[in-house]
Amino acid sequence: MREVVILGHGLTLEQIVAVSRGSARVVLASEARQNVRVARKYVEELVRQERPVYGITTGFGKFSDTFISGHQTAELQHNLIVSHACGVGQPYNTDVVRAMMLLRVNALAKGYSGVREDIIDSLISFLNQRVHPVVPSQGSLGASGDLAPLAHMVLPMLGEGLAEVDGEVIPGAEALLRRGIPVLSLSAKEGLALINGTQAMGANLALALYDARTTLKTALVAAGMTHQALRGITAAYDEKVSMVRPHRGQQAVALSLVKLLTGSALTTSPGELRVQDAYSLRCIPQVYGACLTALAHAEQVAEVEFNSATDNPLVFAEQDDVISAGNFHGEPLALVADYLSMAVAEIANMSERRIERLVNPQLSGLPAFLTRSGGVNSGFMIAQYTAAALVSENKVLSHPASVDSIPSSANQEDHVSMGGMACRKLREIVMNTQRVIGIELVTAAQGVEFQGHSGLSPATATAYRLIREVVAPLGDDRIMYPDLNSGYELVQSGRVVLAIEEHMGDIIVVPER
């Protein structure tokens, strides 16, 4: 994807990733420019008339009843940014910051915020010329939106704060000079329009969604390899089972497993080795299908949010109206992020149980800890420990953030979403889960060595070859963490999914109703 045209609507997850992690350029559509001009003209008329309108001719929060004269509006907006830049903690990664800026551009382009085109053009210049504000990751309550993170995003536009350019963190003014981007002076409404929104939450949710989708697909591949290493029974994935419990997620995962295992010489039938498998194999369609359903629901909510006006107040120029409301409230994102956190944690939970089955000789029928010389060698014993530690950490992180609220702004903002925390810890859970799936990939490949990897299905044989390019079969003990990191990289990069889908199409195909 070489270019993303911003309309104020229709922005997709794939476009967000193409800009935040790729090199796609951003262009503002002419129709969006016209909408922005109309709203801005209306705001300037409100200022001229000195009508009392929140955030335009008044202060903010508890100061909403304090009138601000026209000659003070620039000072008001500038002070808003510098006073709200109270973020702390580790800075967000570049991909999150770029997604934040893109989402803010799309929201402003809808034409309900009342900013000048210069504001949007400055953000687009930052994206296209790769100027990345340093944005601390902590400090958002998720209402009134992501005030602190977005204020840090704006600082370099004003020649303040810090920005990363060419891999170097430098003062905002120097970053503008280096790229030839003019310093902005904010006018009426513009500071508030830039920071009153859900774009830090949305950026984290967008990238977590994209990564979770790839992680779930890779988890199915890993599960397919483990299934063969353990000589699993494929009957549990028969389409007749899902026909009588027709959850679409379950149906899709069952179909996926059948595709992944087609052509294998390492699967069995009921009674051949055992009558039925343990739940971590037999119930993959039911568990991962539910996770897929959660992911699909979260994507639907996110797509609406990515293309919404989340400012306050909202400017309806054609109706001669300005409405102060609460579209900045992050509850929709907070709830789905908490829901998805539990779903992604479950992906890891089940994977860790399969890892345990692989290394436990009482459950696998394979050599203990997948080493031929147990005792002198520990094999994959501690790889399972690491997976167990990660899933335990996920359980703590899965505690919902959205059930909490702390009043702020002298009780004017008396209920907040905590969506910033919900979306931020969701990304941690996704990364932990990617590491667990990476451990399963490496462990399952070792298990297959004892069954004969030539018997693998064509799809999982592709994954096996990728693993063996970076991780050799384990003989005597060696330092293991590079192997586990290589497994993580295969998951995180999407290489396994890309290689398999090149030959068999999409790993997960949700059936039509």
Tally of strands: 9
Poorly predicted regions are none
Give the strand order of the largest sheet, numbering strands 1, 2, ... along the chain.
Answer: 4-6-7
What is the C-alpha radius of gyration, as a whole number of Å?
Answer: 26 Å
Give the termini distance in whole angstroms: 31 Å
CATH class of the largest domain: Mainly Alpha
Number of helices: 20
Shape: elongated
Order of helices and strands: EHEHHEHHEEHEEHHHHHHHEEHHHHHHH
Structural class: mainly alpha
Number of domains: 2
CATH architecture of the largest domain: Up-down Bundle
CATH superfamily of the largest domain: Fumarase/aspartase (Central domain)
Helix content: 40-55%
Q: Quote the average pLDDT.
A: 95
For the sheet with most strands, the description reads: 3 strands, antiparallel
List the main descriptive attributes of the protein structure presented here.
single chain; 20 helices; elongated; 2 domains; Fumarase C, Chain B, domain 1; Fumarase C, Chain A, domain 2; mainly alpha; 55% helix
Brief write-up:
By secondary structure, the protein is mainly alpha-helical. It is 55% helix and 6% strand.
Secondary structure blueprint with pairings:
Blueprint: E1 3-6, H1 13-20, E2 25-28, H2 30-49, H3 73-84, E3 88-91, H4 94-108, H5 117-128, E4 132-133, E5 136-138, H6 147-154, E6 162-165, E7 168-171, H7 172-179, H8 190-195, H9 199-229, H10 239-243, H11 248-261, H12 279-282, H13 284-306, E8 314-316, E9 321-323, H14 331-359, H15 361-364, H16 381-397, H17 419-449, H18 458-470, H19 481-492, H20 495-504
Parallel strand pairs: 1-2
Antiparallel strand pairs: 3-5, 4-6, 6-7, 8-9
Helix pairs in contact: 1-4, 1-9, 3-6, 4-5, 4-9, 9-11, 9-13, 9-14, 9-17, 9-18, 11-13, 13-14, 14-16, 14-17, 16-17, 17-19, 18-20
